[in-house]
Every structure is written in C-alpha cells, then in structure tokens.
Amino acid sequence: MNPSSGVLITRPLHQAQCLAQRLGSLGIKHWIFPALDIFPREPDPASLEFAHHAHGWIFISANAVQQGWPWVKPGTEPAWLAAIGQTTAGRLREVSSRQVLHPQHGADSEALLALPEFQQLDGIKIAIFRGRGGREWLKQTLIQRGATVVYVECYERQRPVAPTPELATALAQNATIQVQSTEALHNLWELCSPVQRQTLRQCTFIVSHPRIASAVSALGLPTPVVLPNGDDALIEWWTSHQGPENP
Questions:
Q1: CA 191/CA 61 separation, integer angstroms
Q2: What CATH code is assigned to 7-36+162-241?
Q3: Model pLDDT, residue 2
Q4: Domain ranges (residues) in the chain
Q5: What per-residue confidence (pLDDT) applies to 71?
Q6: Alpha-carbon gap, residue 138 to 110, rounded angstroms
Q7: Dihedral sign, CA of 16, 204, 191, 211?
C-alpha cells in the first residue's frame, strides 16, 4: 500500500464534524464522505408506551440517543439505562444526567450482555432504542434470559444517493479510510466506480470491530486496522504511524 496523505471520515455528517475538527487542529489532512445518512423516524406509539413502563432502556448507538431521547416523556424514565460502548454511554449520561451501564471493554452487544446485570432477567421489561432494522442477536439473547423486549426504532439509515467530489479527492490522494459499520462499508463500495474500487485495494482501512474487519476482507480489500471505537484511538494510531502532520 502507498503512503496515506490523510483520513477519509465516512461517519454520518453530524458525527464526522467533531473528528474533522480534531484532525484539523493537529494538522492532519482529512475529508468527509458520509457513507451513511441518518434520518429521524417517529417510533411506533405502542413501543413508546411499552418503554414508558419498562424496567430498563438500552441504547444501541449515539444516533439512538440523539434521535430517541426527545421522545422520552418526563417522569417515565426506567430504573436503569444502558448503552453499547463508551461513546454512546457518554452521550446518554449527558442527556439523562444519570449513571449508565456499559462495558468497560468492547463496544458491542456481546460485551454489554457479558455484564453481570444482564445474566438473570426473568420478568424484566426492556426497551431497545435503535434505528430501523439491524442485528437481532441482542433482543433474542435478552429474551432467552427471561426478558420481555420491544424495539423503539427512532431513526432510519440510508445510503447516499451519489458520491461526492470529496470522495474522489480523498481516493486520489490514497486516504486512510475510517469505517464504523458494515453498512457504511458496503455503501462506500457500492458508490465507488470500478476504477475507484481498485484504488480502495491500495488504501488502509481503520475499523472499530472485528465484524467490520471481516466484511472488509470479504470484499477483497487489505486487512484493516482494528481500533477501539472513538476518536482518540484513531488519532493515536495516525500520529504513531504517519506523524502528526502530513508530508
């Protein structure tokens, strides 16, 4: 692979801007191409009614916090709140001013359900705030452990209509590509031309989970770097491998 000139951020726009500002402050060249668009979605009223009488709420992502919390009625918060990953937990603490259950290591459903609080759940009602669609493992495992579970689906994920000049510029400069979900990876792949797909094979990918790494390899792309979810890990990796400033 050729040396990278900067970082291509593929997060949804409202999440990409914070990382872009940090990279810019460090003199690291960067581009934003949201490979996933997030749109608010009104939850099913029955799911909200269930949530307002549940014992606990689980938030899948920072998007779930941002889009789901405004639907919460004052005075209906449950006994406990939980989040997948420290970034989502931080956002949830900000809006709720409460303690949040979350794994100290790992940022996925498996890490959350390894916590002792989720081992015996007979008779417990749990609402999961998430986007429409997605993995069923979390819900099914909670049910197997005795819980009654309902989704509160509060946003939609959609593929962008077309690529942008930012994407073409980043690929032309052999950007390091940061990807946080398998869906975003597949969207990026579908939006690239055949020539751009060949360029992707020369790029370094930074991903946040082994599951995404497997999806990268399945597309015939180089073995990616797996880093903890969060901006600090990416910046630390960049400065140790590329230097604080671009050549």
A1: 24
A2: 3.40.50.10090
A3: 55
A4: 7-36+162-241, 39-157
A5: 95
A6: 8
A7: negative
